[in-house]
């Protein structure tokens, strides 16, 4: 989604410029809001080479994580391009992901799911 990335960068630049004008200097690129994606946007990333998922209203780019996930790639691959909250919560058999997995999920957070 080149336009979403461009929009995020533009917003970040605008926030930094505003901070400079106001003399605050405390606004960083990390303060910029993340883009919002639709389920159609996510569906465009339904392969192991570009794997996005929606989980609990947030969007994650899982692509790089597939190679380090402890299961076979097909386990994650089944959820690429989809809403995967239930799969995340239960791993398909009622088992929650670990606290470490939750931390890793935050590292790949790319946006919010449009309502």
UniProtKB/TrEMBL annotation:
SMART domains: Cyt-b5 (SM01117)
Keywords: Heme, Iron, Metal-binding, Signal
Pfam families: Cyt-b5 (PF00173)
Transmembrane segments: none
Matches recorded under Gene3D superfamilies: Cytochrome b5-like heme/steroid binding domain (3.10.120.10)
GO cellular component entries: membrane
Signal peptide (UniProt feature, chain positions): 1-29
Metal-binding in keyword set: yes
Location of the Cytochrome b5 heme-binding domain: 34-114
Superkingdom assignment: Bacteria
Keyword Iron attributed: yes
Gene Ontology molecular function: heme binding; metal ion binding
InterPro entries from the UniProt entry: Cyt_B5-like_heme/steroid-bd (IPR001199), Cyt_B5-like_heme/steroid_sf (IPR036400), Cytochrome_b5 (IPR050668)
Family assignment from sequence similarity: Belongs to the cytochrome b5 family.
Protein name: Cytochrome b involved in lipid metabolism
Organism: Thioflavicoccus mobilis 8321
């Amino acid at each position: 989604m080149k336009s979403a990335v461009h929009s995020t960068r533009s917003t970040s630049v605008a926030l930094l410029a505003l901070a400079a004008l106001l003399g605050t200097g405390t606004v960083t690129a990390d303060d910029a809001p993340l883009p919002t994606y639709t389920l159609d946007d996510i569906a465009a990333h339904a392969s192991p080479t570009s794997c996005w998922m929606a989980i609990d209203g947030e969007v994650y780019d899982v692509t790089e994580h597939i190679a380090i996930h402890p299961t076979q790639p097909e386990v994650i691959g089944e959820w690429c391009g989809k809403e995967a909250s239930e799969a995340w919560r239960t791993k398909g058999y009622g088992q929650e992901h670990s606290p470490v997995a939750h931390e890793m999920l935050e590292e790949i957070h790319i946006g919010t799911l449009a309502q």
